[in-house]
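Handout for the seminar on molecular recognition.
Each group receives one record of this type.
Step one: identify the two inputs.
Step two: read the structure output and locate the region that could contact pyridoxal-5'-phosphate.
Step three: write two sentences on what you found, then compare them with the reference statements printed after the record.
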Amino acid sequence: MTDFHDFTKIIKDTTPEDKQNGALNTPIYMTSTFSQPDLEHFHRFDYARSGNPTRESAEQTIADLEGAEYGYLFSTGMAAISSVLLTFSAGDHIIVSKHVYGGTYRLFNDILERFDISHDYVDLCDLKAFNRSIKENTKAVYIETPSNPTMDVTDIAAVAKIAHQYGLIVIADNTFMSPYLQKPLSLGADIVVHSATKFLAGHSDLLAGAAATSSKELADKIYFIQNAIGATLGAFDSWLLLRGIKTLGVRLDRSSSSALKLAGWLEKQPQVKKVYYPGLKSDPGHDIQKKQAKSGGAVFSFDLGSQQAVEKFVCNLKIPVFSVSLGGTETIVSYPPKMSHAELSQSDLQKDGIKLGMLRVSVGLEDQDDLLADFKQALEQIKNLTD
Ligand SMILES: *Cc1c(COP(=O)(O)O)cnc(C)c1O
């Protein structure tokens, strides 16, 4: 469905043709197994781990939105990432973005290492450092952009260009942007992975993960692991995901514009030490972000200077929920040092630039002026702490 714009594609993909009954939504096939016509033959599906029509409909939607040939859905984002990384073998080496999601960090450090799949964390904003870190047994580079929570932007096309000179597979975690804002495959990535729990599902009501690629060879490997390991997405959650995706574009347009407004306002407040948002002109990643994505997205971080200021500010906020995760309809404020990055030691937090005064905001669909007024009153109450 490559001829349409994203808004049309999103609706066409999630409204498949039901030849039997004309239903406008994909039926939920709550079945673990499928009957066979005879000893020798199967229908289109045989057993639901290997394939389910509802899941397949959602898989095709993800693939189409990412501009991929093949899509796969998993029970969580971590199941998708693990399954993709299990296509590698003992002895392989993978270069990983310096700032990756905590669960991905744990997967590389504590699980893949045990199977002799090694890795190095590299600042992929530094292309020379990336080039230097490529070893003889390096097989892939794993990008997360913008990164969490410092919102560093990696130039996907530039990294892919170098990577392909060495025959590396480029994997990109596109969770923070979603295919509506950024399409890593069109920039040279080979595999896109997602926590579909976040913007794709969009309502904080399910866990899901996705992988997409246009390479038949990589797709076969991913499908083999999906079926062999079996961390697949259930039929009902696949249907919920399809329902959530219908509003992906409108949600992200609105949340991105509110994020830009809030981040731009915060940047001018004396109590705020720094705002991390590639949608802002002042941000070091702005030019690359503008080149490779439709907007700065719905997530930004900012630094209030101290944990004490953060505590007071968060207590005074009336609209956002204070929680882990992102990408819902509600504005979510989280505290990276004690949530997503709780596993890092004090010195690792410092090394990674994760400040004790830092808050991450995933902007939801509430009224922009209400959000701004709420941030304003909460900030006024910490004036004496940040002077
Ligand atoms: C949440 C998240 C994940 C993990 O996804 P789950 O659905 O929670 O398993 C991976 N990458 C990023 C960037 C995330 O934000």
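Reference statements: The first strand starts at residue 70 and ends at 74. The pocket of pyridoxal-5'-phosphate is lined by residues 76-78, 101, 103-104, 144, 148, 173, 175-176, 195, 197-198, 207, 209 (CB under 6 Å).
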